[in-house]
Amino acid sequence: MNAPANFTPDLATIRQFASKNASTYLGIEITRYDADGMVLTMPISEKTRQPLGLFHGGMNLVLAESAASMHACWGLDLTKFMPVGIEINGSHLSAARDGNVRATTRVLRRGRSIIVHEVEIHHVETGALMCVSRVTNFFKPIAPQS
After folding, report:
1. 3-state secondary structure of 79
2. Contact 55/105 with Cβ under 8 angstroms?
3. Which is more confident, 77 or 86?
4. Which structural domain, as residue segments, surrounds residue 118?
């Protein structure tokens, strides 16, 4: 599915738009998508654990970048620009072995050429804050097709 100009889809449209990538393999579900941010959930499974059985810290960053990059599309003319990640960091604050995680993203700053999101990742069942991440996306101009 190609995204239209000034992309401000409903929840069903963004789910379809994001359905053909790592999100599907990892079981990531979009539960909220609006102008203020978005919420994703992901199960802790054999696909997302490190060798000692804990939720892999890299999965926190996959979830954070997925949320921030998808949300960076909000209101963007995707025929002229594409959001590309240029910086990510994450502080891992607690661990989990089972259950689900929820990533909640919010915009810290949206400028003409970049957008910065903060992403908090919580363990759904306990409410424990597992990771805090900041993601910066650049609105890369798309060269006209000739």
Report:
1. coil
2. no
3. 86
4. 11-141
User: What are the φ and ψ backbone dihedral angles of 120, each rounded to 5 degrees?
Assistant: -105, 130
- Please name the residue that has the structure tokens 């259950």: 99
**pTM score, two decimals?**
0.87
Choosing from 29, 46, 65, 125, the catalytic residue is 65
Q: Look up tokens 């101009």; give the residue.
A: 141
Q: What CATH number is given to the structural domain containing 37?
A: 3.10.129.10
Which one-letter DSSP state was computed for residue 56? P
Mean of per-residue pLDDT scores for the chain = 90
* Most confident segment among 7-16, 65-74, 95-104: 95-104
Q: Domain count for the chain, please give it.
A: 1
End-to-end CA distance of the chain: 21
84's tokens: 């590309």
pLDDT, one tens digit per residue, over 5-19 is 555 666 776 667 666
Query: In the annotation, is 120 catalytic?
Result: no
Is 116 in contact with 69 (CB distance < 8 Å)? no
